[in-house]
Amino acid sequence: MKRSDTLGWYNNLAARDQRVLRFGAIGVLLIVLIWVFLPLQHRLTEARARLQKQQSDIAWMQQVAPTLAAAGPGPVAAATQESLVVLIDRSARESGLAESLAGSQPAADGAMRVQLERADFNLLTGWISRLSSQHGVRVEAASITAGSSPGVVNASVQLRTR
Q: Using CA atoms, how far apart are residues 159 and 91, in angstroms rounded to an integer?
């Protein structure tokens, strides 16, 4: 259809039909604007807020980085005089992991491989942290897999005194 044919068709409509067509076109245009541009505007606002939050996080990190770098890794506890086997058993029980402790076996050069089954992940990480900070034990290797329910894991951890 040519433009002149379209205008002719429109001009041949009754005044009432022309009004309905104009208002309908305006209505369709408004609906398209609402469905397309308002969600885009909302997403843009959210993205700007995330960007501002990330920029403030970066500024804070840059501000505290020199302080953290100067502090260093912190003091490390001296190696314990207690046997590693006894220390592992005692500390696991104190940490609430007695039922999860499935066994331990010697590894190369005085290290110990500890098996835990159905262990609470939070208790496990707390136990490892205390072994490191209080007894000078380090983790050489670890394998942690999800257990049967959320927050429960099976783990194999190789530990060594420093």
A: 13
Q: Which two tokens stand for residue 61?
A: 């990190």
Strand partners, 119: 153
Handedness of CA 8, 14, 15, 20 (dihedral sign): negative
Span 82-136, pLDDT tens digits = 788 889 999 999 999 989 999 989 888 889 999 999 999 999 999 998 988 888 8
Distance, in Å, from the CA atom of 39 to the CA atom of 35, rounded to the nearest integer, reads 7
Cβ atoms of 136 and 78 within 8 Å: the answer is yes
pTM here is 0.52
Output the six-digit token pair for 116. 């835990």
Report residue 138 as tokens.
Answer: 């380090």
Residue for token digits 């194999």? 156
Alpha helices in 72-100 (DSSP H): 84-94
CB 32 within 8 A of CB 26: no
**How far is the C-alpha of 113 from the C-alpha of 111, rounded, in Å?**
7
Please choose, from the candidates 79, 97, 82, the residue with its C-alpha nearest in 3D space to the C-alpha of residue 138: 79
Q: Which residue has the tokens 């034990």?
A: 137
